[in-house]
Amino acid sequence: xxxxxxxxxxxxxxxxxxxxxxxxxxxxxxxxxxxxxxxxxxxxxxxxxxxxxxxxxxxxxxxxxxxxxxxxxxxxxxxxxxxxxxxxxxxxxxxxxxx
Amino acid sequence: xxxxxxxxxxxxxxxxxxxxxxxxxxxxxxxxxxxxxxxxxxxxxxxxxxxxxxxxxxxxxxxxxxxxxxxxxxxxxxxxxxxxxxxxxxxxxxxxxxx
Amino acid sequence: xxxxxxxxxxxxxxxxxxxxxxxxxxxxxxxxxxxxxxxxxxxxxxxxxxxxxxxxxxxxxxxxxxxxxxxxxxxxxxxxxxxxxxxxxxxxxxxxxxxxxxxxxxxxxxxxxxxxxxxxxxxxxxxxxxxxxxxxxxxxxxxxxxxxxxxxxxxxxxxxxxxxxxxxxxxxxxxxxxxxxxxxxxxxxxxxxxxxxxxxxxxxxxxxxxxxxxxxxxxxxxxxxxxxxxxxxxxxxxxxxxxxxxxxxxxxxxxxxxxxxxxxxxxxxxxxxxxxxxxx
Amino acid sequence: xxxxxxxxxxxxxxxxxxxxxxxxxxxxxxxxxxxxxxxxxxxxxxxxxxxxxxxxxxxxxxxxxxxxxxxxxxxxxxxxxxxxxxxxxxxxxxxxxxxxxxxxxxxxxxxxxxxxxxxxxxxxxxxxxxxxxxxxxxxxxxxxxxxxxxxxxxxxxxxxxxxxxxxxxxxxxxxxxxxxxxxxxxxxxxxxxxxxxxxxxxxxxxxxxxxxxxxxxxxxxxxxxxxxxxxxxxxxxxxxxxxxxxxxxxxxxxxxxxxxxxxxxxxxxxxxxxxxxxxx
Lengths: 99, 99, 280, 280
Ligand SMILES: [Zn+2]
Ligand SMILES: [Zn+2]
Description:
Mean pLDDT of chain C: 95
Protein name (chains A, B): Ubiquitin-related modifier 1 homolog
Largest sheet of chain C: 8 strands, mixed
Bound molecules: zinc ion
GO biological process, one term (chains A, B): protein urmylation
InterPro entries (chains A, B): Beta-grasp_dom_sf, Mopterin_synth/thiamin_S_b, Urm1
Largest interface: C-D, 67 and 67 residues
Subcellular location (chains A, B): Cytoplasm
Low-confidence stretches of chain C: none
Keywords (chains A, B): Cytoplasm, Isopeptide bond, tRNA processing, Ubl conjugation pathway
Oligomer: heterotetramer
Number of strands of chain C: 8
CATH class of chain A: Alpha Beta
């Protein structure tokens, strides 16, 4: 399944300062759908090169990180159990506090 | 065919100050595709309530109006002969000069 | 002031004529603005354009709260402060610049740090609050205070080459704690003094904050409540996304909220976030 | 100035320290900025935030060209002008405010109208041009001049509650005439003095113009060349769209362009657009 992943608010620093990643991620078995839970595990093992605790806590994103699927907060579309579709755009963004 | 039409840069004033229109437009005959040429004629007859010369000149938009289909200049996708797809978003925007 | 036409003086009609011409704003919008009071928390990178545009547009009362003094290394982004004010209070400097561009509005200087102990008293005097601070505990504190006093909050942030902006606790939308019930780990809290910031990035975000404050104070348009604007300055991309709604379980604004004015005053926001209330 | 570390003086290293910390900007970006010169055409609603942010960020030479005087009904949006300068030249007022926030840069006042007769001589002295004017013939004239002298042009516009922004003639992208070979009918040219403008709308667009100018002058990031940013302030929507490329048939920048320095100097831009070179 082809997905566009974007990292912002400093999370790009965890994946070699690359903000936009075009990726292909396969579901666990052929008939199953890919969920956000699967994607998080894939991102953690395949993209995050340092300080994984700055991205995840337990099996979800750490506090202060927003997950947006096709410009919509994942909390509005099922959160971690949400099923992804071909060509979805998933944004991981850390909240900023500076000024 | 369902389309979202948006008018900006003052063109909304020509259609009762409504910026976003959700519309259904049928092609001329069942098997034909709807082109931008057809859509312009439909907009002129169905949406534009005053001063049509502020929207069109001849069979195309007047100078100073940009046409954007799914966030892309129509000149990049065939211009007036471009064929529209279900759920396309078409923006008509007049260039501004103020400051 | 004597008022003549529809609540506006002849001086106002001349000064704000380009606003009065706007069908979507007009006399009603200007009158609403002139009767409103807006508090800007922070006279730094975000606060600079916010106070300049709020002063120039004719808000009735503009409050500015900050305890910092102007430093030369602020001036690459804090456009409200002239060099002559280096070493003096930011609030004094910002108020002087704002008075110079519009002497006809009321500008109130709060030359102190906004803290849980004084926030209720200060914020209570205003209709709309702009969070232009630079640290995490202040963001929780200001959001909680706005929920307690039922004030709309326009929150902006900038760091490096990125910016974010939303409106909290407005027309049934979420508050800061609805989005972030648990604070991030302290190591995730980058600060401008450590990580840097391109000066014009808080400029863009601050202008958007002023726009949202003006719309809410003048009762026009649709605010960014329930939406987050994300700016990536390096590639000039702007994304506006839909956020979750108000949480029924929110300890601040939820159905069984535990937050009260009494426990707010003594809540330890620095301990809660493991982060200091200043970017020093 | 003595230069020490990598072309920057110790004073610059302190003042711009928050820029130097940025991995994507750093010493190289600040050095490029300090060696660049930027001309801002128009010290009005768009020009105000542009000159303030260009002065504060440390561009080496900032030129401002305008022939207007400050009027009280400009001040609802033109935040660079204090009331004390009403009746005086906008260029003088803007330069004074910019010098007060950064005395270490070179600010050049062009207190005259930019016209086809003087534009080549003035624009030729600068690396980057910002179009912050308020009228159609100036937009064609400035674009043509930037094509002739091969300068990137950052063009912004605002009216009512809407704004637009793009970059012309940069890295092979289109010029103004590529997009608009034929001028619109004069009746379609609304002006701020007739139709009004919400003051903070040119504020947002001007900040984006300053951002684009800073990125181009410091050689970082990706500009809005070939893209148009569209702001709808009432609903806080921002759209960034892809524009057509450079036109091979463009009379200004195309393969058989007829524009030359000689015919530029005498071209009648007001006649061509049926529109005056001022918003009065
Ligand atoms: Zn809440
Ligand atoms: Zn061209």
